[in-house]
Amino acid sequence: MAVKNFVVGLFDDEAVLFPAVKKVRTAGYKLHDVYTPFPVHGLDHAMGLRESSLHTAGFIYGITGTTTALSFMSWVFNVDWPLNIGGKPHFPLPAFIPITFELTVLFAAVGMVMTFCWLCQIMPGVKKHIFHPRQTDDKFVMVIELTEKTNAEEVKSFLQAAGAHDINEQQAEAGWWFGRFDKDDEPYLRKVKPVNA
Amino acid sequence: MHLKYESTLREPLVDGVKDYHQVTEDIISPIEAKPGKLWYVGFFISLALLGFGAFSVFWQIYFGVGVWNLNKTIGWGWDITNFVWWVGIGHAGTLISAILLLFRQGWRTGVNRAAEAMTIFAVMCAGQFPIIHMGRVWMAFFILPYPNTRGPVWVNFNSPLLWDVFAISTYFTVSLLFWYSGLIPDFATIRDRAKTKLRKHLYGIASFGWTGSTKHWQRHEALSLVLAGLSTPLVLSVHTIVSFDFATSVIPGWHTTIFPPYFVAGAIFSGFAMVNTLLIITRKILKLEEYITIGHMEAMNKVIVLTGSVVGCAYLTELFMAWYGANPYEFDTFFKYRAAGPLGWSYWIMMTCNVITPQVFWFRKMRRNVMVTFVMSIIVNIGMWFERFVIICTSLYRDYLPSSWSYYRPSWPEVGFYMGTFGLFFTCFFLFAKYFPVIAVAEIKSVLKTSGENFKEKMEVYEEESAEKFAHDVAHAH
């Protein structure tokens, strides 16, 4: 990612936030993101985000688990070491169901959580720019990216009119880096010249 | 204004006048303050118990499994009783977090975090018993199907004991993932308001760099929903498989098809009782009465009286089948050695605690009484412990050969081991209550405007209007 310039505005109420999102989109500004302290239902649609495909990934992981369990147990009992256990069949499908089920769930859950972390680019030690410390508390923080075509002052007054407060301009790394939250250590901020400075 | 709002007839889930910031303050500030005296007292008692448990386990490993009072007739005693009991307790946490999420039960938001923590700690305690019971615990890895140099000789995939290995380990992993994925945003909340450097750093690591981006929340919601969908059959499968440990054998009193539903109902029954025990203390000490309300306790007491009655029906069905099935061994097990005989007292403790006393919860006054709920939650757990004891020991101590009939009482390392798991459980719970948000902050915020007391009062205007007008107004709001 890169260092970019942003205009940041705070909203107190979802009822004000939703129309503001609509206005920003129709005005054609580049909406970087809206940070919220909890999942606000419908905000993803209002922002025009597409549905998450995490479910599909989960299904694929699940059937991988099913296949792994069934094929591994059958291979062990029929090919690798066919053992006579009390005269029971070598392919006792009903007896395989519990482990098959457990592995399906395990693969799906572990795979999905890892995919979730990968997609959101989160893991221990990862740091990202926090636009406002209360974006995880009670404020809805709207961040608009400044491009060559946008005028910062114009965006500010636009946000003001849309009901935002504490509007400010920030230069920040848009991606993630390895860092500590108790230190101001945005690394690229010091080394790289901002793209649109 | 949302199209969906909750009827004012429903009790608010959050009492008092709250806004989003107040919710954060109420739940996070105990983490930032020094713990009280009671916390230290409780924590050190738990640590002492844990220490005694570790010593008992050391004793057993050093001298061998013979220091336990198990014998050739009674091969499973307190250890497996405690294992089933702890696993059962864990089930309520998953039920609250997963099944109630799918059923869209709003009240779960107040209690799910603590209940899931309870699940994880309870499964940790449970897992120890079968492992230590093996005797040579350093061989415990033999239960895993790994490529070895002895053939390789694989584990027996037909055995319910092996199914248990897979079930319990999967259950633990999935519960942990579910719990932690819910904790990430709340850790970020603690991080962003932290005043000290150390707290900011540590919660920064724990929060994985969460920012609260809308896209991330969308994925988070999708993840929670699918994990809930996966955990729901999982939780039912786990105790079903635990019951298979018994049901697939040919011991009278174990060999019954009723076991899976009966065990699952019993697990939920005891688990909800444990949630009540823990939350009544937690809400008092951390002053969270406005979030874990009497309404929450009433909802759980309703589940307790339902599952308690299911369990009671199962007991009666077993007795009926023992008579109707016309198997003399089964008849004797139930009517001569379980309901009567030297261990008969345990059967009647079980009956009293699980079937008779929970009936007080048919009365609304009793369901909403904190003291009654607390006492009942302990009685239920005593009863459910005895249920497992009765199933295991009273089926074993009178077997097919009268010359091997035996009696069983635990030795001190068995009791010490059990006490040690209490130590482990409560040590973990005390640390959790101090360092983790005991209530899901983000989830409370997302139900606050539909179910908070001060927001519900504003809804009375809309209750007066017709549904069509309300829907029309919402559609044309912006």
UniProtKB/TrEMBL annotation, chain A:
Coiled coil: none annotated. Keywords: Membrane, Transmembrane, Transmembrane helix. Pfam families: ActD (PF11821). This is Quinol:cytochrome c oxidoreductase membrane protein. The chain crosses the membrane at residues 57-77, 97-119. The keyword Metal-binding does not apply. It comes from the Bacteria.
TrEMBL record, chain B:
Belongs to the NrfD family. This is Quinol:cytochrome c oxidoreductase quinone-binding subunit 1. The keyword Membrane applies. It is a multi-pass membrane protein. The chain crosses the membrane at residues 38-63, 83-103, 115-141, 161-183, 222-242, 262-282, 303-325, 345-363, 370-397, 417-436. The keyword Transmembrane applies. One of its GO terms (cellular component) is plasma membrane. Keywords: Cell membrane, Membrane, Transmembrane, Transmembrane helix. InterPro entries: NrfD-like (IPR005614). It is found in: Cell membrane. Pfam families: NrfD.
